[in-house]
UniProtKB/TrEMBL annotation:
Gene Ontology molecular function, alphabetical: iron ion binding; tRNA N(6)-L-threonylcarbamoyladenine synthase activity
GO cellular component entries: cytoplasm
Organism taxonomic ancestry: Bacteria, Bacillati, Actinomycetota, Actinomycetes, Micromonosporales
Gene that this polypeptide is encoded by: tsaD
Similarity field: Belongs to the KAE1 / TsaD family.
Cofactors that this protein relies on: Fe(2+)
InterPro entries attached to this UniProt entry: ATPase_NBD (IPR043129), Gcp-like_dom (IPR000905), KAE1/TsaD (IPR017861), TsaD (IPR022450)
EC primary class: transferase
Protein EC: 2.3.1.234
Top-level taxon of the source organism: Bacteria
Function noted in UniProt: Required for the formation of a threonylcarbamoyl group on adenosine at position 37 (t(6)A37) in tRNAs that read codons beginning with adenine. Is involved in the transfer of the threonylcarbamoyl moiety of threonylcarbamoyl-AMP (TC-AMP) to the N6 group of A37, together with TsaE and TsaB. TsaD likely plays a direct catalytic role in this reaction.
Subcellular location: Cytoplasm
Name listed for the protein in its UniProt record: tRNA N6-adenosine threonylcarbamoyltransferase
Catalytic activity as recorded in UniProt: L-threonylcarbamoyladenylate + adenosine(37) in tRNA = N(6)-L-threonylcarbamoyladenosine(37) in tRNA + AMP + H(+)
Length: 350
């Protein structure tokens, strides 16, 4: 279907330089360069290192994406770029590059919201998103539940973490277990060898008194501290730390709370579709538990394949394509890199 818009998306909000190309809902290219290895020894993403890596990777990643899709910049109908939220310097590299390409090739530009792009990417695998839907975004920087009535117009926040993000909790727990960075995939693997019922870690904001004010909010900082205390007490007693059991029990606590609140959000809003996005959506236990619990209530779960859950350019292109198809006006060429871009803003207005 050649009438559908050909959209190129650029992502540089954190440590992945991504350039994706889509036609309508069809993914044509998804080129990625990661600086994750350069951050590993610091145990977290170092903003200045990330910005420099984006600068070096952007042009070659762009070229790879165009080659992979077999198109030139002249063929593209619009360029989308992550305007925010994210690391200011990192965002600036992508936004400046997108402006340069848009100006040189005389293409419309869309500055888009990274979190909305994590929702939109699912359309590349499962087609148009039924609306309304509930979206759960779980990444290194965010954990939110959103009501999506119309993805082009903005989303309604239902709740969010009041302290650490889910991915951040995975990264911190992996660090205290000496497992490396980023922690999510490592804990996911380690947990497969462990017993998720071996240690009873706390489920934040699930007590009846917390549900009054924080029904759809999350808290993972107490869980992280509980894991740290448990590990310390073992070490003080001179006993070995059962890493796989700690990983599995911690992961179970996170996934239990995330899925319970997501299903509750669907049911209380009368919504039959739950879409999960962001790096933590790659978690194998989260995917299984969400399916199991949703099925009991006739709710359909949509989660993209793990490679599309973590940051990439395809998600930005997918949201751009959705905006073009809906006739949303492009952004102005002086669009900002907005590190604190709000969820209610899906794209930078024209
Ligand atoms: O969405 P993302 O790639 O970047 C942000 O926008 O933050 O998410 C990265 C986060 C990291 O905290 C990483 O540990 C977590 O996603 N993550 C996972 C898994 N894969 C990545 N967490 C749990 N299980 C995984 N398999
Ligand atoms: Zn992300």
């Amino acid at each position: 279907m050649r009438d559908e818009p050909l959209v190129l998306g650029i992502e540089t909000s954190c440590d992945e330089t991504g350039v994706g190309i889509v036609r309508g809902h069809t993914l044509l290219a998804d080129a990625l360069a990661s600086s994750v290895d350069q951050h590993a020894r610091f145990g977290g993403v170092v903003p200045e290192v990330a910005s420099r890596a984006h600068l070096e990777a952007l042009v070659p990643t762009m070229q790879r994406a165009l080659d992979e899709a077999g198109v030139t910049l002249a063929d593209v109908d619009a360029i989308a770029v992550t305007s925010g939220p994210g690391l200011a310097g990192a965002l600036l590299v992508g936004v400046a590059a997108a402006k340069g390409y848009a100006l040189a090739a005389e293409k419309p530009i869309y500055g888009v919201n990274h979190l909305a792009a994590h929702v939109a990417v699912d359309t590349l695998e499962h087609g148009p998103l039924p609306e309304p839907a509930v979206a759960m975004l779980v990444s290194g920087g965010h954990s939110s539940l959103l009501l999506v009535d119309d993805l082009t117009a903005g989303v309604t926040p239902l709740g969010a973490t009041i302290d650490d993000a889910a991915g951040e909790a995975f990264d911190k727990v992996a660090r205290l277990l000496g497992l490396g960075f980023p922690g999510g995939p490592i804990i996911d693997r380690s947990a497969r060898e462990g017993d998720p019922g071996s240690i009873a870690f706390p489920r934040g904001l699930t007590a009846p008194k917390d549900l009054v004010a924080h029904r759809f909010d999350f808290s993972f900082s107490g869980l992280k501290t509980a894991v740290a205390r448990w590990v310390e007490s073992r070490e003080r007693a001179g006993e070995p730390v059962p890493v796989a059991d700690v990983s599995a029990s911690f992961q179970e606590a996170v996934c239990d709370v995330l899925t319970a609140k997501a299903i509750d959000a669907c049911r209380s809003n009368g919504v039959g579709t739950l879409v999960i996005g962001g790096g933590v959506a790659a978690n194998s236990r989260l995917r299984v538990l969400a399916e199991e619990r949703a099925a009991k209530h006739g709710i359909t779960v949509r989660v993209p394949r793990p490679g599309l859950c973590t940051d990439n350019g395809a998600m930005v292109a997918a949201l751009g394509s959705h905006l073009v198809a809906a006739g949303v006006a492009p952004s102005r060429l002086d669009l900002p890199a907005d590190s604190a871009m709000r969820l209610t803003e899906v794209s930078v207005p024209g």
